[in-house]
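Example record

The entry below shows one chain as it appears in the dataset: sequence first, then structure tokens.
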Amino acid sequence: MLYQLPPVGNPVCLSRSDKQDALIQIFGSSYKPYYFASGTAALAAAIMAASRLKSVDEPEVIVPAYGCPDLISAAVFAGVKPVLVDLEADRPWMNLEQLLARISTQTVAIVAVNLFGISERMDQLRPLAEQSEVVLIEDSAQAFPSRNEQDIWAGDLVVLSFGRGKPVSLLGGGAVLCREGAHEALYGLLPCGREQQPVNVPQQLIFKLKAALYNRMIFPRLYWLPQAMPFLHLGETRYYPLTSIEGMDRIRLSMLPANVKAYLDNSLKIQEKIEEMLGDLDLEVCGITDLPNACKIADGRRLLRYPLLVEPGARDQLYGELFRSGLGPSLMYPTVLPKISGLRSILQSQGVFPAASSFAERLLTLPTHQQVSQADIAKMREVLGSH
């Protein structure tokens, strides 16, 4: 197959700017940003700040049982025990009843993950966090606001990632945003990332070459090339322990304003066409759940991927058909966190998570990026409709 859409595919804009705090330019004084070398490091820093704010003997952090292994990498590096919570049935949200039961005197934070761009129910998590005197951390690695939707966050701390495949991609880097009016001490409790040395000319050239190659390889006519290179581990879910917290390098900081602008300038046309296509199908007959529609996401909410739920056996068959048609489907994380290699010993004896397991077995996503064509959407309709 010489035509294959990547599951996510926003290119890196190589323009540089002296304007440093691009996020402050967008959000004004609502959030104060602190930049790190990765989204995982940013999350670890946020958890460490929460732990320092509420000093307890054996700190714990609440995280969903389905998600990226980097949730656990960050917690382990921060020296805080991750406590898993199951999902609500057929939803990407934590089960509120179980969450409340798992909060203890040792809990320092709740990590609410905006999966695919679908926000957690922050209006319901906020009272639980305040009642328990814990920090509400909003993991927004997969969510970034559109131009007319700048008020999508409600966490005390918001974590962003600028890694490969994220809404705003710099092939690395992350940030913690501290909400104005939240715990005033939180910003001062964030650990200082080890400052990286100034980027020299050879390093700048290497980064630009790497970014330019990435931009070429996500073209549908070329994406099969990196897919054929197993050492790149594209699409794999792997656990990587975090080894240090460093600041974001200066070349990425200088490119952040242009990349934020490029993201904001992208239209929602592709996502809207996919929504329209799904609306024309009888999804109930097809055995498919339109997750954004079921979650009643706000108008204009931009999704990193378009998630569907399909019955397990049919899901795998449908994925194969979409993949063979070059339509860029993905299965996201293959299972719940305790079953991912490298995490079993860390998360042992935390119980079973039936809703999260079912969610993992049924999840299928479609690409929403700008390289998706009308012809691609027509093929998606054909494949989904024949299911």
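Notes for this example: Residues 201-217 form the longest helix (17 residues). The CA atoms of residues 329 and 366 lie 5 Å apart.
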